[in-house]
Every structure is written in C-alpha cells, then in structure tokens.
Amino acid sequence: MALPRRTDAQLRAAFTGLVVESLAVRQDVARRTVRCAACADVAAEENGDTDPEDPDVNGTDPSDAGSDADSLGGDSSPDLGVGDAVVVVLRNYEGFTWEIQDVSCLAHGVDRVADAVGVEADDQAVVSCVLEAAGYHSPDGTYHPDALTLGDVTVLDYSPAADGYPTSGDDR
Ligand SMILES: [Zn+2]
Predict the structure, then answer these.
(1) Domain parsing of the chain, residue ranges
(2) 116 CA distance to ligand 1 centroid (A)?
(3) How far away, in angstroms, is 45 Cα from ligand 1 center?
(4) In terms of Cα–Cα distance, which of 42, 10, 12, 14 is closest to 153?
(5) What is the pTM of this model?
(6) Model confidence over 79-126: pLDDT tens digits?
(7) How far is the CA of 122 from the centre of ligand 1 (A)?
(8) Helix/strand/coil percent split, the chain, to 5
(9) C-alpha 76 to ligand 1 mean position (Å)
(10) Phi, psi of 8 (to 5 degrees)
(11) What is the distance in A from the centroid of ligand 1 to the CA of 8?
C-alpha cells in the first residue's frame, strides 16, 4: 500500500529544523560548516594549479606584489555555514525518517529529484533552504547547541513513493 502523497506544507514542516547529519553528509561541528562536494572537487583541482592566464595588462605596478597574500580565493570555499543558502536532497526511508542525501551550494544544486539521485519508490524531495544553527537534540539525549539545521525551506521538487520507479518504456 503506497503512502499518501505529502503536501508542500507537510514537507516544509518535516524539513525545518532538521539537523544536517546523515550517513551521506557530515557537518563539521567544530567549525559549524558543511561542505559542498562539488565545490570541494573544484578546490582540489585548483589546488597547486597556478593561474593559467592573467590578462592583467594595465596593472604593471610592481609595488603591488605581496598585497595578494590571501591565496585561497574566498569565493570558491567549499564550506557552507550559517546563513548560506543551500540545495538539499532528501529521501524518506520506508516512510519513517527523512535522510539527507546531499547538500550543495546553489551553484551546484539541482532542482529535480530525477537529476539529483534518480526517482525510486520512496518519498524523495529536493529543497532549497538556509543553514541555521538552531541546535539539535540527538536521540541519545545530548544537546548540540551549534549543530547546523535547515531553515526557510522551499520545496523545489517532490517525488512521492506512489510514483514508483520510472517506467523505461522499452522493457524488451
Ligand atoms: Zn558548490
């Protein structure tokens, strides 16, 4: 028996305050950040790579050297923290608990379940939200005051379990 389709409001209620922690995604509790895997890949590729071409023809001032000490470009940091907008992929296993499958920055996020993980016979959703640090009461009774949680949730896509698996159309 398929589970009833959830409403947008039910999904938002389920995800708001959800702690960013799952088998697939781990937050850095000490730094209160979570990493965009795609950004981390990009950062790793750029690491050790010198600037390919710098078309800076006008900036010939030699006294400029040394002012660029911050070699790590702040723009490409893979770490997402409080106040950052993120795209989160979630899946509801067996109708019980929502599990975060992926957290990405807005640039790397997808907005459809089919593009993110593929549609399967579970409740699945892709949402955009803002990272908050509302704290988390873990099942063992410990309170983590700095844990990252989801806030300001907007449901981008929802694939109910009743949709089942996608029909390929060419089952020979
Ligand atoms: Zn990213």
Answers:
(1) 8-40+78-160
(2) 14
(3) 13
(4) 12
(5) 0.77
(6) 999 999 999 999 998 777 899 999 999 999 999 999 998 888 899 999
(7) 26
(8) 20, 30, 50
(9) 8
(10) -55, -40
(11) 26
